[in-house]
Amino acid sequence: MTSGIGSRTPATRLRKWMVGSHPVNYSDAAMISRNFKNVLVVSLGFLSLFTAYGGLQSLQSSLNAEEGMGVASLSVIYASIIISSMFLPPLMIKNLGCKWTIVAGMACYVSYSFGNLYPGWYTLIPTSVVLGLGGSPLWSAKCTYLTISGNAQAAKEGKKGPDVINQYFGVFFFIFQSSAVWGNLMSSLIFGQDTNIIDVTDEQLQFCGAADCGLNISSNATAGRPAQKLVWTLVGCYIGVGVLAMLIVAVFLDDIDRERTSRFRGNREPFCHTFLATFRLLKDWRLLTLIPLTMYSGFEQSFLSGEYTKNYVTCALGIHYVGFVMMCFGASNSLCSFLFGRLARYTGRAALFFLAAVANLSCIVALLYWRPHPQELGVFFVFPALWGMADAIWQTQTNALYGILFPDEKEAAFANYRMWESLGFVIAFAYSTFLCLEYKLYILLAVLLLTAVTYPIVEYHEYKNPTAAKDDEHSKGVVAVDDSSVYCQTKL
Fold first, then answer.
1. Which of 5, 21, 40 is nearest to 172 (CA)?
2. What domains, with CATH codes, occur in the chain?
3. In terms of Cα–Cα distance, which of 65, 23, 49 is closest to 322?
4. CA-CA distance, 14 to 171, in Å (whole number)?
């Protein structure tokens, strides 16, 4: 007669070792695996998509510098995102669900890559509008999907929803932000084959950085434009990885809010209710107070991709160095996103936001006085590394903060996030062609200081009056999380 231990199979002993002596519901274990798998699928899809778009965005101010066409297209993109944020995210997410809203939004991004095959006002501007209209639904659906998954996972494990949401956003941004590495690596390797690399003279270096007004860089950038054949090769690769992103999400992502969308289509609410959901949330003073923080995210991202790459890197080193510098930014951003997503539960959001503010403040002051020169090659990589660390905090913690503060209005909350962040992009890109670089740095500094004043108000209120997680609010009519129907309910 065999002993109890000897009668167990290796698989049984392994399960016993992994979960301890407590009874296990193996459907719950499957749920845990499915939630994390979905986070990975979303992350890989965005990684592939923004390998293309991130690479193009970094190059626009230098590659399509003639008449400010590249920067103008970026401004149109984020202006369109503002418009789409006003009404499209709730409508698309409620009708299509998060999964298919993500796929549709990705298709809009791919269209912009096609526009860059033959860049001109008649190709870049229309595709910029299309991308912008799909941008806000794409990001709102992603944020909603991760928040739903985080709350579902927390309910299964008996953990706090904010902790799991922070972890999921950290994993997402760890994978997603590495797109800057791969997209810019592609551009660097392809453009590195160009034989038309010009030498930057000492006379041209006088116009780099904040030493001069910085409005004469476009002529230098145009002169060093890579051969058209190499541009086509790069854009063709970007189109390929963009299509791959759509396939990854369409095939492998679970449609976790299918039942909710079916109920919505079968029992439609008045159009004006869904249309105005984004604006109705503005009645919440917490959202209004977060506007400077959200807009600053747009300002700081646009500065690095538009101003730093053009006025420092392209001006002093040449366009073929833009990819390498932005790879440094992407690597720093990716690693720090993963790190801070896990550290947040121990340090709290406020400490991380303070670290990001100090890092950006130091960089802004240094950029005001630094005069870029090719002999100081290492310094060109220090700024994007620090900027990437700070941006990792702005992105992970702000996204998670919106999901925590507005658990019952996720679609409208993340639509507001994209709307105000995009407004920061639009303003920054709009004045890019006629303001001196020094003034742009002062504006960036002013918005950062305003953020340092307004954000602590919301954080202090949340500390004194914590927002209850959705899965804890059954008594208030909020739908519970279960295996068969996982979705977020919006109060209209």
1. 40
2. 37-464 (1.20.1250.20)
3. 65
4. 27
